[in-house]
Amino acid sequence: EPGRSWRLIVRTLSAGFTLVRLMDRSDSVSAEKMRVDFVANASHELRTPLSTIIGYAETLADDPDLPADMLARLGATVRGEARRMQRIIEDLMSLSRIEADRFVAPDELVPIAEVVRLAVANAEHLRGAATCDFLVDIAEDLPPVRGDTAQLQQVLDNLLSNAVRYGCDGAHATIAVAVTYTRSWVTLSVKDHGPGIARDHLPRVTERFYRVDEARSRETGGTGLGLAIVKHIVERHRGMLEIKSTLGIGTTVTIRLPAAP
Ligand code: ADP
């Protein structure tokens, strides 16, 4: 069977019996492979900006009398690359904190409407001069969600940042944020009218460092870790994550979280 790994254990018992056990090791082998791939990817992601910083620092050290405009350009690039490393390191630390806490049930009463409003304000700031509007629809009398306020804030911030970074290109694009409440679930959705994600890529976008359009992700300050963080936080909250997308139409990310009883 492709992709599966087995261990065969044969033991001779007394009285002429032989015990044969076939154990499926696929999960531990693939977990180990994921860990190795993750370390390799993280090292690669950090090495790329670091090489630029070292190269530019050497240029400065070799020729301290560079013209002012060139110095300014070198400085701006070094700052940009250092910030990229900082974002990657912060996201990696978030991921490892979430993983460390995964067996600890989060128990704050999270005012989800406030979290959403703050995330929209953050996204408006991020949007800058881009021509896109936010449509926010939050159900009244929303019950709180039992969870971790900072982590749920991060979920909303990541989803809205993606909607802005990928969906705020076209003229008068709209980003719709909705929060509804039905049968003990609070449902949050973020819908954009950006380029969408092709069907082949969709199942992989929550993997660490997986990017559909690497250049676009980098240009807009992405780390490739945003949706991986979202997925882990939603899992920790025993919630559900669904991403629906159509090329050329847009993307809708929906999260369901159990409402606090
Ligand atoms: P990144 O920092 O690269 O945005 P994410 O983990 O947030 O990393 O997303 C992974 C990839 O999924 C992105 O690089 C992008 O290709 C794709 N993606 C995520 N959100 C959207 C969206 N709203 N519209 C189009 N593509 C998206």
Question: What is the secondary structure topology, with strand pairs?
Answer:
Blueprint: E1 6-12, E2 18-24, H1 26-62, H2 68-100, E3 108-110, H3 112-127, E4 132-138, E5 145-147, H4 149-167, E6 173-182, E7 185-192, H5 214-219, H6 226-236, E8 240-246, E9 250-258
Parallel strand pairs: 4-6
Antiparallel strand pairs: 1-2, 3-5, 6-7, 7-9, 8-9
This protein binds adenosine-5'-diphosphate (ADP).
Task: Describe this entry's structure for a reader.
The structure is a single chain. The chain is α+β, with helices and mostly antiparallel strands. 47% of the residues lie in helices and 23% in strands. The protein is built from 6 helices and 9 strands, in the order ββααβαββαββααββ. The strands form 3 sheets. It has a 5-stranded mixed sheet, with helices on one face. Strands 1-2 form a two-stranded antiparallel sheet. The chain has a two-stranded antiparallel sheet with strand order 3-5. The structure holds adenosine-5'-diphosphate (ADP). The site of adenosine-5'-diphosphate (ADP) has 22 residues, from helix 4 and helix 6. Adenosine-5'-diphosphate binds next to helix 4 and helix 6. One of its GO terms (biological process) is cellular response to phosphate starvation. GO terms for molecular function: ATP binding; phosphoprotein phosphatase activity; phosphorelay sensor kinase activity. Its EC number is 2.7.13.3.
